[in-house]
Amino acid sequence: MEFVEVIKTPKADNVILRRPLHQAIEGTLCVTGHHIIVSSRRHSNDELWILHRDVDLVEKRISGSVGILTLRCKSLRTLQLDVPSLDDCTNIYDSIIILSTFDNIRLLYPYFHRCDSGSTDYWNKYNSSDSAIRLCGEATGWRVSNANRGYHLCQSYQEWLVVPVNISDESLHLAATFRQNGRIPVLSYVHRSTGAVIVYGGQPLVGQSYRRSREDERLVNAVLDSGKRKGFIVDSRLPGIVTTARTRGGGTESDSAYPLWTKVHKAIERPNNLLDSFTKLIEAVYDKSCNVDKWLSRLESSGWLGTVRDALSAGCLIAQCVDRDEASVFVHGTNSTDNTLLIVSVAQLLLDPRCRTFTGFQLLIESVWLAGGHSFMDRYYKSVFSSASTRLGNEAPVFILFLDCVHQLVRQYGASFEFNQSLLIELSEHVYASPYGTFLGNCECERLGLLSADKDTHSLWAYINTDEIAKKHRNRLYEFNPGVLWPSVAPQSLSVWLECYGRWVDPDSSNCEVYTQKVINQLCERRDELKKMALSLRQQLSFRHIPTV
Fold first, then answer.
1. 467-348-428-420 Cα dihedral, nearest 10 degrees
2. What is the pLDDT confidence band of residue 289, given thresholds at 50, 70 and 90?
3. What angle do CA 127, 465, 122 make, to 5 degrees?
4. Residue 403, pLDDT score
5. Average pLDDT rounded to a whole number, residues 425-444
């Protein structure tokens, strides 16, 4: 299908754009294959570009002779377009409906976006083979396996897997038949101090007949180096859900088959319910009419902060096992592409100061979320404003939940992170609609195989690491902290992320980050001045103590 077939009215004049926190502007509206563009008639530099992919819901109504379009975006902002011609309004409405829900991924904007050629370097810099080799170099008793070459063992994993050195590729293939979607336990993190590891994988296919797999038992037990180390299996599901999973062929590890391991349930809200929870949170943030008590009640009923607390608690539990108990941890849920990746990445942020650097955080997202098979295309197809009829049914803002968890950590340990909240907010927008190909597809197999994103699109990290953008996202108060972080998860220690969720409706929220950065810059400038003064005084003092001849 050609874009020209969809766009019946490519241009409309005298359109009025209304948006929160801004004055209304009158100008020209243009509809392209990928953008809605509104340009002011009075100020040539006053122009707004909206990706069609960012539109979550478009509503049309008529007021007299004017057609009114309301665009509710996945980035949580709401725009109103007053179109003087009713025919133009209808045509534009129809075009946006089609263009915002294109199912042909090859027609999305990342395949048309052009930028500096240097961005291709980041596809090579963050490839899974180098990450696997680097991870294997930190571990004793592990090797890099190409058993998943061509993604034949597991489509949702990366091609290169780090597995115990004494387990053959043939055994890996046999063990994969016993794990959900072939997701065998693979290495994700090695603790430098204790040597304990974090691995993740899919649930065992035990079923009601309590099936066993000798190859899987050997693989899982090999993680503990023949019983030389303690081990914990952290299941991100409630025991009741595990029982239900067993009736469907899944389940959990039996004590008799895995005697070296201790099982712990650390339940996180199921992805199926997460979008409803997030929707209730955003509705509460946007509602300025209710009093404080009612607002707090709505916030509590959303359950969002409770899920943030649960995710942080699970991450702390894993960190405690690895750091204090010197025990290895095997994390899984059902498919293990959502909550499992969530708590594994939170645990690594707590344990590893490298993950808290600007580059290390990007590597964490690549090695856990992207290489681990999080379904970015399905999970973020629609968001909080969409109607149930327009959704795929798989939407769940798990990665947004992760970014919220990171935000809570940044609030409590601000100087321990080399990046600030603005990077997290930027990522929350790109995960829904982006000119870059980093979040295309549901796994590496789709992204680099079927979609050829590494060859035909540009990497988001190239943009993030440009001097201008990186400077905006770096924390000037950063001080390297080699220790493990132990955040408070008490209710009074957690807060609604208004800098992100309320940035389009609350002037205090939208200005908070700007004001904070301004104060930080002033403090840093004063710190630099004091350092220069201290250096000058030391030099003067040293001159006074030079003996005279």
1. -50
2. confident
3. 20
4. 98
5. 97
